[in-house]
Write a structure and sequence with these properties.
This protein has eight helices and 14 strands. With 482 residues, the protein is α+β, with helices and mostly antiparallel strands. The protein folds into four domains: 65 residues, no CATH class; 150 residues, Efflux pump adaptor protein, beta barrel domain (Elongation Factor Tu (Ef-tu), domain 3), CATH 2.40.30; 65 residues, RNA polymerase II/Efflux pump adaptor protein, barrel-sandwich hybrid domain (OB fold (Dihydrolipoamide Acetyltransferase, E2P)), CATH 2.40.50.100; 174 residues, Arfaptin homology (AH) domain/BAR domain (Substrate Binding Domain Of Dnak, Chain:A, Domain 2, Up-down Bundle). The strands form three sheets. The chain has a six-stranded antiparallel β-barrel with strand order 1-10-13-12-11-14. The chain has a four-stranded antiparallel sheet with strand order 2-9-7-4, with no helix packed on it. It has a four-stranded antiparallel sheet with strand order 6-5-3-8, with no helix packed on it.
């Protein structure tokens, strides 16, 4: 048996001979070295690709290069949010008409979908509280007010009389007090005089006693007569009588001084009591006057309230608009105070859009930034990164960014029409849905893809303005101009 190497050599020679025979048949007169490679070698025939594969390769390569170049195209970053159509000013938004008083519906004057002007009658109520059933309630309250007014006048006259009486007592008190003080002063002077007289009488008495004693000694020696001694004794008795009289006058003067002091205190106590009593009566009268005035004011206020209440039996339209929906129906239904009756859509309103933006995106927004809007019911084709090629969208401008969250994790942003862009449709209705895109800075597409893959927030080239400080500065400037 032949080994493996020998067999392979023989098979190779056989294949070569067959190939040369084929070449002689297909290419007569040519040498084998002059034939094309794919004809000379069977391997080249195996690797030859069809033309459709080459075209596909060219297209794939072109698209790849175009994709790489597209990565450097500009892309406008944006913040997407949903919201609804509303009115920019609060007084232009749909409002409910409420009942000012409790009552019962007696008659309707409008129906849903009807246009009403400001002041038109919407419905009429009737009274349900027994306090106001009497049709002459206002008249009776007026009579009560007149009676209380007369009572106030009478008490005011009494108060005036008490004031005059008080002034008279004060004057009399001053006169009596001065009189008592003068009497006390006179008593003091008399005490001073009588005390001096008493001292003089005592001195005279002492002198007379000493002279009498000397005369007694002289009489015993026989130098003076008995008559002279008796004369000195008589004079001593006279000085003693004068001393006793002076002492009595002094004591009497002291008693008069004490009485004057007591009288002064009595005058003060008497007139203090009179003044206190009169002032008490005056204070009581003034309290009654104040109470009567309060009662009068309450009666007058109640009469005015009843008169004004009668005007609220008719519920009128607060402004011109369309009656959207009646929240109460039928006749005879009870309406509570402050309860909503109908909803009115104001005639003139400036449309706006309220979008609800995530808390993470709010710091990137400020007033004046451009927004693209897509309204429900208006077909649109939106390219958020290329707003210039969008179809069916409308431009807007941020007017208000709330400083507190409206819902959990969301803030309200009010958007108004952009005066430089296409006008919003007139058929917009309040409450219809809106999708908005707040336009930020332009970046390359590769940067936006990289940002989205890493969940990074959009980037801004400039810091957003502080709306709070700007509004405060504008208000201050307005106040200064005023």
């Amino acid at each position: 048996m032949l080994n493996l190497h020998t067999r392979e050599r023989i098979e190779a020679k056989v294949r070569l001979r067959k190939k040369r025979r084929v070449e002689k048949v297909n290419y007569p007169g040519k040498v084998a070295d002059e034939l094309p490679l794919e004809e000379r070698y069977y391997t080249f025939k195996l690797i030859n690709l069809p033309r459709s594969s080459s075209v596909l390769a060219y297209w794939v390569g072109g698209l790849f290069i175009a994709g790489i170049l597209a990565m450097f195209l500009p892309w406008q970053q944006n913040i997407r949010a949903k919201g609804k159509v509303t009115a920019f000013k609060p007084e232009q938004r749909p409002q409910t008409v409420n009942s000012t008083i409790d009552g019962m519906i007696a008659q309707w004057y409008v129906q849903e979908g009807e246009f009403v002007n400001k002041g038109d009658t919407i419905l009429r109520l009737t009274e349900i509280k027994d306090k106001y059933f009497d049709p002459r309630t206002v008249e009776r309250l007026g009579e009560q007010a007149k009676a209380k007014a007369l009572s106030v006048n009478a008490m005011q006259d009494k108060a005036a009389a008490l004031r005059a009486q008080l002034e008279a007592i004060e004057r009399e008190y001053a006169f009596s007090l001065q009189k008592a003080r003068n009497k006390l002063q006179q008593a003091g002077f008399k005490v001073s005089i009588d005390s001096a007289d008493y001292v003089a009488a005592k001195v005279n008495d002492d002198i007379a006693r000493e002279q009498y004693q000397r005369f007694v000694v002289l009489y015993e020696k026989g130098l003076v007569s008995q008559t002279q001694l008796e004369s000195r004794e008589q004079k001593l008795q006279e000085t003693r009588a004068k001393l006793v009289s002076a002492k009595n006058k002094w004591d009497y003067a002291l008693n008069e001084l004490a009485n004057a002091r007591v009288e002064l205190a009595a005058v003060d106590a008497e007139y203090t009591g009179k003044l206190a009593k009169t002032r008490s009566e005056l204070s009581e009268t003034q309290y009654k006057i104040a109470d009567a005035i309060a009662s009068l004011a309450k009666t007058e206020s109640e009469a005015t309230s009843v008169a004004v209440r009668a005007e609220y039996y008719i519920v009128r339209a607060p402004q011109s608009g369309l009656v959207v929906k009646a929240l109460k129906a039928g006749v005879g239904e009870i309406v509570k105070q402050g309860e909503a009756i109908v909803t009115i859509m104001p005639e003139d309103h400036e449309p706006a859009v309220e979008l609800y933006v995530r808390a993470a995106d709010v710091p990137l927004l400020s007033t004046g930034r451009h927004v693209r809007l897509e309204f429900d019911g208006w077909p649109a084709l939106q390219f958020s990164g290329w707003p210039s090629v969008a179809v069916g969208t409308f431009g807007g401008q941020i007017a208000v960014v709330d400083f507190i969250n409206t819902a959990e994790g969301e803030y309200r942003v009010l958007v108004i029409q952009d005066p430089k862009d296409e006008k919003w449709p007139e058929q917009l209705r309040v409450g219809s849905g809106v999708v908005g895109w707040a336009m930020l800075d332009e970046v390359p597409i590769w940067f936006e893809i990289w940002r989205q893959l890493n969940a990074f927030p959009p980037s801004l080239k400039e810091k957003p303005q502080d709306d709070f400080k700007e509004k405060k500065k504008a208000k201050k400037s307005e106040d200064d101009d005023y």
